[in-house]
C-alpha cells in the first residue's frame, strides 16, 4: 500500500455521502460526527492513520468490526482484496451497503450481527480492523488472524482507550503494541461490554 495513494484517496472521498442530511455540511471538518443510533464516524485523519497502520494490500482478506457509516469500509475496500464487515445495527449496515454499492465496490461482504467474536465462516483474515472499543482483545479475533497478520483494536473503558496493534508472526506468536490514545464508541456483544 502506497501512503500517497492512501492520502489522495481519502482526500477525494466525499464524506458527506456517508453522513445523514443534517450533518453533510460538516463533512469537510476533521472531527468525529454522529451517524445515528448513538454511533459516530471517526475523523478522516484517524481513519487514514489506522488504515496506514493496518497496511493492507490488494491480496489481503480484511475483517472489519463496526461497519457504521461505511466510510472506513470504503477505504479498506479500495486498498484490499476482500473486505468482510460486521455491524450489529441493521439500519447502519443497510445504509452503508447502499452507499458502497453505488460507489461500485464488489469486494465487500456484509454481515449484521455481533462481531465481537469475529466472522468465523470466512476466517482466517490477514488484517482485522475493529472500530469500536473492547474491554479486552477477544480471543476469537486473535484466533481468526492469519500468521503474519495484523489487527488494530481500541482497548479500554468508555472515556478513553488505547489503540492496540496486535501482530501474529509466521509461527503464530502474538505481539502487542500500544499506538496512542483514542476514543471510540463501545463494542457491544459477547466479548464486548455486554
Ligand atoms: N468505522 C465506522 C465507525 C463505526 S462506529 C465508520 O467509518 O463510520 C462503531 C460501530 O460499531 C457502530 O456502528 C456500532 O453499532 C458497531 N458495533 C458495536 N459493537 C459491535 C459488535 N459487537 N459487532 C458489530 N458491530 C458493532
Automatic annotation (TrEMBL):
Its EC number is 2.1.1.77. Transmembrane segments: none annotated. It catalyses: [protein]-L-isoaspartate + S-adenosyl-L-methionine = [protein]-L-isoaspartate alpha-methyl ester + S-adenosyl-L-homocysteine. The active site is at 42. Its main location: cytoplasm. GO terms for molecular function: protein-L-isoaspartate (D-aspartate) O-methyltransferase activity. Keywords: Cytoplasm, Methyltransferase, S-adenosyl-L-methionine, Transferase. Belongs to the methyltransferase superfamily. L-isoaspartyl/D-aspartyl protein methyltransferase family. This is Protein-L-isoaspartate O-methyltransferase. It comes from Parasporobacterium paucivorans DSM 15970.
